[in-house]
Design brief:
Mean pLDDT: 74
Strand content: 15-25%
Number of helices: 0
Number of strands: 3
Largest sheet: 3 strands, antiparallel
Structural class: mainly beta
């Protein structure tokens, strides 16, 4: 079941609720008790598919070419080894 975020327009109270898709949204604010002031908020997903092993076509037909989403997008085959960073420039110590 998905978790939905709601907000009360009367008092500004934010809350989340675990409910089925077929369940009705709440109509009463649990904080102030105002009726009909609850609205559903848009929220971002809480996870990201990162790292090797996630493919764009994991759930497509077998004939489709699979492309690793962790690649840089420059046609696949990109090296995953990070390039060395340049050494920091030496600094002069200030005399007082």
């Amino acid at each position: 079941m998905p978790i939905y975020a709601f907000a009360c327009s009367a008092c500004g109270h934010d809350f989340e609720r675990l409910q089925r898709l077929s369940d009705a949204d709440p109509t009463t604010c649990p904080a102030c008790g105002a009726e009909g002031t609850i609205g559903r908020q848009l929220t971002a997903p809480q996870f990201r598919l990162a790292g090797g092993g996630w493919y764009e076509t994991d759930f497509k037909k077998d004939g489709d070419k699979k492309r690793n989403l962790a690649d840089s997008g420059s046609g696949g085959g990109a090296s995953t080894t990070p390039s060395p960073s340049p050494a920091p420039a030496p600094t002069k110590a200030s005399s007082q």
